[in-house]
Amino acid sequence: MFNSIPLLVAIIPSLMFTSVNSMRFSLKSGEPKCISEDIKGNAMTVGNYSVVNPGEEGYPIPDSHKITVRVRSPYGNNFHYGNSVGTGNFAFTTAEGGDYTACFSVPERKPAITVTVDFEWRTGVAEKDWYKLAKKDQIDVMEYELHRLQNTVTFIHDEMFYLRGREEEMQDLNRTTDNKMFTFIFLSIIVCLSVAGLQLWHLKVFFERKKLL
Questions:
Q1: What's the rounded Cα separation, in Å, for the pair 73 and 22?
Q2: How far apart are CA 115 and CA 64, in angstroms?
Q3: Three-state SS across the chain?
Q4: Biggest CA-to-CA distance, the chain
Q5: pLDDT band for position 125 (50/70/90)?
Q6: Of 41, 43, 38, nearest to 96 (Cα)?
């Protein structure tokens, strides 16, 4: 129990501060840009993206500034695809853990253009907008806090089991590596001793033939 306290202290700040990835970046035509997010398996993730209108507010985004978006899993499975869009969003539960990648691109044009994109990627606890939920359902503050804390505790619990599983995998890998290294060293010693024995036998035969012994 006490051994888990430092782990909780390390996990809780990461849940609070690294589960939301919000940014604005420039995208040049003909130069795709990919953003990766390390997400554990069976976790909820939500993303929203929109092109900043280069013209006046209220006017539609020109076709030249529309983008293509593709979200892939660590094994190359497509979870979202948007072709020639100005805005979009995606939401899914991850099937496997690892680096999920969102790639943005604009077709190559001459002269080249630069598109500005707002992108927000939320995973884990952060993917639920609890303030909107409270406003929508008119629930009181206490119930809202209880829901939020329950969701946080559940996420921490799942994260601890995930980390424990990764630790067991690393221990198994270390044991396998140690066994392979021991086998390799043992075989190396056998080979060296065999070569040394053959050399001694060859020298003995040589000296006996030369009648030096």
A1: 20
A2: 9
A3: CCCHHHHHHHHHHHHHHCCEEEEEEEEECCCCEEEEEEECCCCEEEEEEEECCCCCCCCCCCHHHCEEEEEECCCCCEEEEEEEECEEEEEEECCCCEEEEEEEECCCCCCCCEEEEEEEEEEHHHHCCHHHHHHHHCCCHHHHHHHHHHHHHHHHHHHHHHHHHHHHHHHHHHHHHHHHHHHHHHHHHHHHHHHHHHHHHHHHHHHHHCCCC
A4: 107
A5: low
A6: 41
Q: Quickly state the pLDDT bin for 72 (edges 50, 70, 90).
A: very high
Query: Chain centroid to CA 76: how far?
Result: 13
CA 82, CA 157: separation in Å to the nearest integer? 35
162-202 pLDDT, tens digit per residue, is: 888 888 889 988 898 988 999 999 999 999 999 988 988 88
Closest CA to 42 of 4, 79, 78, 96: 96
Cα–Cα separations (whole angstroms), residue 204 to 7, 196, 199: 65, 12, 9
Is there a contact between 28 and 114 (Cβ–Cβ < 8 Å)? yes
> Dihedral (C-alpha) 14, 19, 24, 29: value to the nearest 10 degrees?
110
Q: Are 125 and 155 in contact (CB under 8 A)?
A: yes
Distance CA(90)–CA(103), nearest Å, equals 13
Q: Is the pLDDT of residue 153 over 90?
A: no
